[in-house]
Amino acid sequence: MASTLQMYRSMSKLPQGKRLFSIAFSQKAPYFASIHLRVDEMRPHFAQLTLPKRRSVQNHIGTVHAIAVCNGLEAAMGLLAEATTPAGHRWLPKGMEVSYLAKSDSDLVCTAETSEADWSAAPDVPVTVRATRRDGTVVVEGTIHLWVTPTR
């Protein structure tokens, strides 16, 4: 079976390919479908997606709900992990620390980033995550900790 990264690379070359990949990725972990994410970029050590501000993800004050933002950040981390985890290894999120810095009153761009040095510290791999508004304001930032181990 093709890896998630291989699927992204081949599908993103097609017309509407990123949209179709986003739908397929959301079905891999059905809870991700609840935020209607759009995958913008996926490569080793980096992933980016857009979380649209829709009524279904808003809270009582009309901003994107904090848990929806965390869902977007976890989805970005998952894309990064799928693209970066070495062959013969598996990953599992083991914790998330986030700070809420500003109101999420627009579509959000969720990013996840690591470095080679982060992965050399395996099995505990920290992934830096960030959500920004359209105007560039960081609304949430934090770290998701992965546990990366051999599959055998």
TrEMBL record:
InterPro entries found in the cross-reference section: DUF4442 (IPR027961), HotDog_dom_sf (IPR029069)
CDD domains: PaaI_thioesterase
Segments traversing the membrane: none
A Pfam entry, by short name: DUF4442
Superkingdom of the source species: Bacteria
SUPFAM superfamilies tied to this protein: Thioesterase/thiol ester dehydrase-isomerase
Listed name of the protein: Thioesterase
Species whose genome carries this gene: Aeromicrobium marinum DSM 15272
